[in-house]
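[09:14] KT: can someone run the structure on this one? pasting the chain below
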Amino acid sequence: MAPGAMPDELRIRLHAHAGSWRLMLSGVVGLQTAETLEHVAAVALRAPTADSLCLDMAAVTSLDTTGLATLAARRREADLRGLPFRIVRPSAAVAAAILASGGSELRNVLDFQDRGRSGTRCSR
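[09:31] RB: done, structure tokens below
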């Protein structure tokens, strides 16, 4: 890293409304930041009142294989808990990474149009 350069950064804003959790992500989802996303998403999924989880990824600038694995793990946890899980408004970088990954595990939860609005229940 060049002197004075900032490390990869991920910012997460949380919106919760009537059991629907929406994580607004911006920045990089990758090796240096995946643990933060893992923790925040796990807390949201395990909340006693949780009935869905949406990840708004419109402002994500980069998604690497570690980030993909983190998203897939949270999607599997949501499925085990019987909770809807969506990736809404994926940035071009997010969509490209997911579509290039070859698996359908995350493709099936992409919502390019985001039919819901911030604060509304995520649905399949």
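[09:33] KT: thanks! The helical segments are 34-46, 65-80, 92-100.
[09:34] RB: yep, looked fine to me
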